[in-house]
Amino acid sequence: MDDIQKMLLEQVADLHEVPAGAYNIRANGVSAARATTANIDIVTKEDKQGIDIVIKPGTKKESVHIPVVLSQSGLTEMVYNDFYIGDDCDITIVAGCGIHNSGDEASKHDGIHSFFIGKNSHVKYVEKHYGSGDGKGERIMNPETIIEMGENSYFELETVQIKGVDSTDRSTKATLADGAKLVVSEKLMTHGTQTAKTAFTVDLNGEGSSANIVSRSVARDDSYQLFLSKINGNNRCAGHSECDGIIMDNAKISAIPEITANCLDAELIHEAAIGKIAGEQITKLMTLGLTEEEAESHIVNGFLK
Amino acid sequence: MLELKNLCFQVENGDLGHKEIIKNINLTFDDHTFVAITGPNGGGKSTLAKLIMGIEQPTSGQILFNGTDITNMSISERAKLGISFAFQQPVRFKGIKVLDLLSLAAGDKTNFSSACEYLSKVGLCARDYIRRDVDGSLSGGELKRIEIATIIARNTPLAVFDEPEAGIDLWSFNNLIKVFEEMHRSSDNSLIIISHQERILNIADEIVVLAEGTVKARGRKDEILPELLKGTEGCKFYQE
After folding, report:
1. Are A209 and A235 in contact (CB under 8 A)?
2. What is the DSSP string of A158-175?
3. Which of A4, A108, B126, B172 could cross-link A140 (Cys pair, CB 3.0–4.6 Å)?
4. What whole-number distance in Å separates Cα of residue B47 and Cα of residue B162?
5. Which residues pair with B211 in a beta bridge?
6. Considering only CB atoms, which residues of chain A are within 8 Å of chain B?
7. Looking at the domain B2-89+156-239, which fold is it?
8. Can you give the residue ranges of every domain in chain B?
9. pLDDT digit string (tens) for B123-151?
10. Which pTM does this prediction carry?
11. Which of B56, B87, B93, B97 should we substitute to test contact with A (largest number of A Cβ atoms within 10 Å)?
């Protein structure tokens, strides 16, 4: 890998060198490095682009890194990654995509990640998106995440996109069996003329299932964000979604919540708040000696931390 | 230390024209002094505190801090010169932690032991608080104590407190009195505290009575306090 690809890898997966455990690093459309473990197998798909990640039942305290980096301007790819996670696992999966585009043609990565999670398994999934390069070509990422959660499983999704992605259309769909719990934390910042659409659809099918979706976003300059969340309570369950947005300059954010209770014992809540930075917050930090610009920067950084 | 010269502040009042909130106030505050400003609601106390910090700009008049004219200075510039300000209603932040706020206040990377020192003075255990967000998950009283801890961390030549007792329970209030006594005793810094509380007035060196935007009285606490304690009906300062 070249220096740009290594920089992208550091941004999206905090990797300075080859990670411990299983990994598959995809660079400019091909697999650049791969390692498997006794419990985690990674197999290249034969019918389309992508890989199958197969994790044996009972695998504990292991990790899988599957970052994607694109540094070739004009490259467009569609990748399917399927995760088969056995029962009683406890694993961390780090994905993420970094695009460096210094050319005039658009670079685009569309990734469809499907998770099939066994009973009682605990999965933490971290995904970062990052763009760089001063070319006119757009950096486009459209991730789709499909999660099928088994009984009493736990899935934590931590997703961050704070720099350099011109356009993103993100979709996350989850179905939960009895006792399953989904926790989502999304951090998003757009600037310039960027657009970001993020849509969640959660079906709480199982008794005692729950979902908590928290999105924090900052839209600056002339950027636009659309947040959609749809939670269907189909059993005795609890669902909560929260969208907190800060708008600056001429930016716009729309939040469209939809909660549907199809069961008398479904408890569903949606909260959304969008607005500029509260003047009193800036004033308070100025009384501590910060300039207005420094105060604004601290508030935004803290909000997205 | 601080000099207010012919200070006036007025606001637009719809069809009624202008409303004067502060009317030609002249006050001088010495070094290492503890002055309590009291008076009826709507008398201009909080506005005066905000004018000193630069949160509000006077319509006319001058503010001098250690001989420097700060009338047109920003809040940040005044803060850097050595004025700090505790809000009556502490501000909440999503994502800024108690440790972050104390570090910003102290102007450095505050570590656990210094955070512990600031927080223990206001009756909070650092271990329970430094990693918490300064947001709605904290009670009003906790936020208030953290607000006062940021002023202790700043340790500036002049600290202005706007009704520090508001929203604080009785146990915390006893500690608050000790905090102010300690701040006054252990440094050469000056304190200006807006308060309605007799016990705060009682530990001040001087009391200023502000009503209807003007200074009705100023003097040592043993001159002013007995008159105030007669109650507002009989108090000559509120009648004039």
Report:
1. yes
2. EEEEEES-SEEEEEEEEE
3. A108
4. 10
5. B214
6. 216, 244, 278, 280-281, 283-292, 298-299, 301-305
7. Rossmann fold (3.40.50)
8. 2-89+156-239
9. 888 889 989 999 888 988 889 889 999 99
10. 0.84
11. B93
